[in-house]
Design a protein that fits this description.
The structure is a homodimer.
Chain A lengths: L5 E7 L3 E7 L5 E8 L6 H18 L7 E8 L1 E4 L4 E5 L6 E3 L1 H9 L3 E5 H12 L8 E6 L3 E7 L2 E2 L32 H4 L1 H11 L13 H9 L3 H25 L3 E5 H4 L2 H14 L6 E4 L6 H16 L1
Parallel strand pairs in A: 1-4, 4-8, 9-12, 12-13
Antiparallel strand pairs in A: 1-2, 2-3, 5-6, 6-7, 9-10, 10-11
Helix pairs in contact in A: 1-2, 3-10, 5-7, 6-7, 7-9
């Protein structure tokens, strides 16, 4: 750590809060993880961040005055200009939370907030798979499904901050019925970890698999990779709808690179199947498919760069 | 026309060349149309434009020196930076034509070129339905299908100049099979004028319609509006795939407005059906659907503004 100070980055999920302190080159100098299970009050979350800050600074051998800025990735629709989390899923249940203001009050430094998938895309743009391209899409495929879209080296966030909400995408193979509020979207229900587990339960049959009916998404993908018949079928369905979604986004955006992230997206079985399906489809549209080199750290890395940008603004 | 001169704009199609002279407010002061049927040589097309220029200027009571710049919309993939038409459909059959250079040589003024659908979107952005919004999509639904995408008030053209090639989009109801080269795309074959005519011929049955089996797309849409059973079915299929395509683009881009243009897109029957289908689908995604107020002049209007921008650069 040189004399130019550090920034604090946080990746807030429904069950975990991940924190890192990084220097002005984006290198992490201290990190920790805390459980947010059962915590819904944004003030409590911000207090957890405030209490962790001096401990992380001490761990890095720094005083309080070394902290220059902070940034938090939130799992929801986020108004970046006003610093407000407009809405998260039911797990946090936030509505119109002025998170940036809370952070600045508690930490006493400039702060910034953005949607976590957008931050993952920012992380890839600055320090990951997207460094050499102007346009790419980061696909966060975990429990749910979302996309962070970088065009001309800038995040495209959309007119109401919801660009990339691809969990509801309609492609061949998805349901076409309107989705009730709170239910997973058409694409998400075939591709997200929660959707994969539900479909597994529905289709489970002891004659077609050695896995139990309550297998995890990771377990199902591992078994598919190893040739388990039922798991292979579930994987193939997920890969098929994902390959259509990527094909459509590549046509619309003319985007040469799709980066797979999230617990399901990072699994090698999914990326391989999707690349094979796209190769069969159409010579016109052949985007590269890469697994995120930042892996679990994509969101946190983006938060670091957002905090560094905020520090540079002063 | 004031003393600041005029620009020449051209909209080049496979069968027609439309030309206009416009003042610095974008107002058309003279216009004409010529047939390009059977003409494939770009030099011949440029010579037609060169020969029309002094006649249009004379018609407006202006001398040659009043012409400040020119712009042409081409029906193909266009490299705007280099001024090169990379590829058009088989009707023109152009490959890597340096159209801007040809125009500048023949006309002796600065010139610019772009894809015609992008120019239609530019026209709507400056003088049509898109004036009041930052983000919108122009849908050109004529013989073929394409989109011009405006994000943050700028055209998004993509990494290889093909953004918005939505004729190949995969949505519920389209074929999922790979499309051979030269064949209409999956969406286009159900929604474009040529696709509608083909499907009409395939499904034609004298008991279900009063129209002949060689009806035009416009005739089929008129008949659908008037309640003809077979025509209504063809319209409903087109509206259904278009509503899914708009829904998907609205999710990906978070874009509040879709402007329908082109001979099929401008037909009231299509817009009404699509709006009704979207209203049923999902409260989350309710973009406005508007018919292009510029109508047939959308492309030409965009070419005027492109030429005015070029004139301003000098």
């Amino acid at each position: 750590v040189n004399g130019r100070g550090v920034v604090l980055a946080a990746d807030l999920g429904a069950t975990n809060l991940r924190l890192a302190l990084a220097d002005d080159a984006g290198q992490i100098v201290a990190r920790r993880r805390a459980s947010t299970a059962g915590i819904r009050d944004p003030h409590v979350v911000v207090r957890m961040i405030r209490e962790a800050a001096p401990e992380l600074l001490a761990e890095a051998g720094l005083g309080r005055s070394s902290l220059r800025a902070a940034a938090v990735g939130s799992p929801g629709v986020t108004d970046v200009d006003r610093g407000v989390v407009i809405a998260t899923s039911y797990l946090l249940g936030w509505r119109d939370v002025p998170l940036r203001e809370y952070l600045e009050e508690e930490l006493g430094v400039p702060a910034a907030v953005d949607n976590d998938v957008n931050l993952a895309a920012l992380g890839e743009a600055r320090a990951g798979a997207g460094r050499a391209v102007d346009d790419f899409v980061f696909l966060a495929i975990g429990t749910g499904v979302g996309a962070g879209i970088v065009l001309n080296r800038r995040l495209h966030r959309g007119s109401a901050w919801t660009a990339g909400e691809i969990g509801y995408l309609l492609v061949p193979g998805t349901s076409e019925s309107p989705i009730p509020r709170g239910e997973p979207g058409a694409l998400e229900s075939m591709l997200g970890g929660e959707g994969i587990r539900r479909r597994w339960k529905q289709q489970w049959n002891a004659e077609r698999t050695r896995l139990p009916d309550n297998a995890t998404a990771a377990g199902i993908l591992d078994a598919a990779h190893a040739g388990d018949p039922l798991a292979s079928e579930i994987l193939h369905t997920a890969a098929r709808v994902l390959s259509c979604a990527i094909y459509d986004m590549a046509l619309i955006l003319n985007c040469p690179l799709f980066v797979l992230g999230g617990s399901v997206g990072l699994h090698p079985a999914l990326g391989e199947s999707v690349s094979a399906l796209l190769a069969q489809r159409d010579a016109r549209v052949q985007p590269r498919i890469e697994r995120s080199p930042l892996g679990d750290d994509a969101q946190l890395t983006g938060a670091i760069y957002l905090a560094l940008d905020r520090a540079a603004q002063g």
